[in-house]
Amino acid sequence: MIVLADKITKSFGGRVLYAAATLQLNAGERWALVGPNGAGKTTFLKILMGQETPDEGTVSFAKDTTVGYLEQETKISGTKTALQEVIDSATEIRRWEKRVHELEREISNTPEGPALDHMLEDYAHAQERFEHLGGYELDARARQILAGLGFPVEDFDKPAVDFSGGWQMRIALSKLLLRHPDLLLLDEPTNHLDLESVQWLEHFISSYDGAVLIVSHDRSFMDACVSHVASIENRKIQTYVGNYDSYLKQREDNLEQMRAKRAAQEREIAHMQVFVDKFRYKPTKAAQAQERMKRIEEIKKELVILPEGQKQVHFSFPDPPRTGDTVIAMKDVAKSFGTNHVYDHVNVSLYRGDHVALVGPNGAGKSTLMKLMNGKLTPDEGTVELGQNVTESYYAQHQLEELDPAHTALQEIDAVAPGWTTSEERRLLGAFLFHGDDVDKHVSVLSGGERARLALAKMLVKPDPLLLLDEPTNHLDIDSVDVLEEALKDFPGTIVLISHDEHLVRAVANKVIDVRDHKVTIYDGDYEYYLWKKAELEARAAEDEEGSGVVAAPQKKAPVPETEQTGRNVKTKEQRRAEAEARNALNRALRKERKRLKEVEAALEPARKRYDELMAEMASEELYNDAKKFDECMKEYTALSKKIPALEDEWLELSTKIEEAGQE
């Protein structure tokens, strides 16, 4: 046990968030904390941290437990570089290192006896804690974490205060991961990350040996890395084993059972109530009626309470004006910021109905490309032209600041919805989870998530044919993301989307544009196609680099064909000829897959070998003294960390396809 929150009760005003809620977190467990908007998820994290006090109940920790907490917002000050800021955050590691050195000096001056034995025990404990927290690889781990979260090596020595708010959040997360606390509390950790950094964080958390508790709106992220789910339901905490998708299935099964039991209880009450109403004043039946009245009261005390479900409001958003087939065309576009060259010779044409995801590492130029599309930036060379009858809407975080603090949510919608009735405006706000008196809240008192929902609702009141959305899910909860996802999936116009939310990207995108290394590459397919095609191209490029001298990995054996005899019946000549022809046809059909499988296997072995070599090199203290060589190793390590899983996934897909075809 790392932490036990026992019988926690917390209220704000007259509203009870939870009553007698209990949750125990153990080492190696990775929990998602979920619940409807306003259920008290962030408050629960603050109770565990000691920043909030429960009305009732206790929070107890195992001895020497260290706790790390990532809040939704952070601000870094001072003059330290990003790398130094991260390294210096490891105060617990430094404290144990200092204790180890102190004990070494004391032990060298202490004669044998009970005092020395006691010191040796303390020394073993201090050294174990120092090693467990990663003290021997502190600098290397700091660099590895920064690189994993998307920092270019050349930015490690840049002052931390010079980074934007989103990058400062990454520095704060890096500091937390380096400290390696026994309990990791993460509130929306994927906000401000790009897709590749989110995937790196998934792998990091999946192998974390402490306890982790995460609040997130990112379903794919939770599916990839959590092992348990704690759901705030009916002011209690219900626990489930498995990832988020498993939790949804289990919860629906539980709800079906609860609904059935509730219906049975209500039928029994109704049946007995008929008897009571009919015979309560009849002397010969009064005693029986009295018994049934008592039974009714007992059932009412045991009545199943169904969880409060989020109200689902279905709203048909107006279609945008119809445009020509070509919505936007970028021809030979180039863009630089001073000496920072972003890209040149960019040629992109988007058409009506394209739902495009812009992907690639942060800083590669995704937001720049979007700003070139909406005219916020002017290209240094080339042209950007909108098609016939095309207008565009642009959503980014600064749109939240353009909301009028003096307006209510309803007034904000009314300002952009001429001709709409109040009822229609309320229905729209209801679709974005503003219910009842929520519509009369002033913008000045809305939370970040509520402001984001209001800004998105304003955009979809009368949508333009081209929607440009830069991280629209930041600050949204899962229910809000679901509303946005449904609106975007059904949108008949053109969408350009930047998002770290893989679930949203998979649901919405039918085309992917990859921005990296000063290049813009179009993949004319959904996100699954993009991942497959990108892995294929990377593997081929690696094979070209490695040359023809590489020894191929052992190939997977082909399925053994069935014998020509089944029991005692020998197959006829015609049957054998037909089967031979079928096998030949199958071999021809799978020729491409077999060739590609061979290529993947040839690329995998040297990649794995080089990965092992790099791990050995990075464990060497000599490498730390050579910053240039370390940076080169780090870049190569980061590239291989992405390349190998992609190749392995493709190898498994191809092998399975060939095996299944052979069995058929």
- Major pleated sheet: 6 strands, mixed
Strand order, biggest sheet? 5-6-7-3-8-9
Helix content: 40-55%
Low-confidence stretches: 548-571
Quantity of strands, as a count:
20
Number of helices: 21
Percentage of β-strand residues: 15-25%
Distance between the termini: 50 Å
Shape verdict: globular
Give the overall average pLDDT. 83
Rg, Å, rounded: 31 Å
Task: Characterize the structure shown.
The protein is α/β, with parallel strands linked by helices and 664 residues long. The strands form five sheets. It has a six-stranded mixed β-sheet with strand order 5-6-7-3-8-9, sandwiched between helices. A six-stranded mixed β-sheet has the order 14-15-16-12-17-18, sandwiched between helices. Strand 1 (3-12) and strand 2 form a beta hairpin. Helix 19 runs antiparallel to helix 21 (627-663). The longest helix is centred in the last third of the chain and has 37 residues, at 627-663. It is globular, with a radius of gyration of 31 Å. Mean pLDDT is 83; it is low at 548-571.
Question: How do you describe this structure in short?
Answer:
The protein contains 21 helices and 20 strands. The chain has 664 residues and is of the alpha/beta class.
Give the secondary structure arrangement, pairings included:
Blueprint: E1 3-12, E2 15-25, E3 30-34, H1 41-49, E4 56-61, E5 67-70, H2 82-88, H3 91-108, H4 114-132, H5 138-148, H6 165-179, E6 183-187, H7 195-206, E7 211-215, H8 219-225, E8 228-233, E9 236-241, H9 244-279, H10 286-301, E10 326-337, E11 340-351, E12 355-359, H11 366-374, E13 381-386, E14 392-395, H12 409-416, H13 422-431, H14 448-461, E15 466-470, H15 478-489, E16 494-498, H16 502-508, E17 511-516, E18 519-523, H17 527-546, E19 565-566, E20 569-570, H18 573-589, H19 591-618, H20 621-624, H21 627-663
Parallel strand pairs: 3-7, 3-8, 5-6, 6-7, 12-16, 12-17, 14-15, 15-16
Antiparallel strand pairs: 1-2, 1-4, 8-9, 10-11, 10-13, 17-18, 19-20
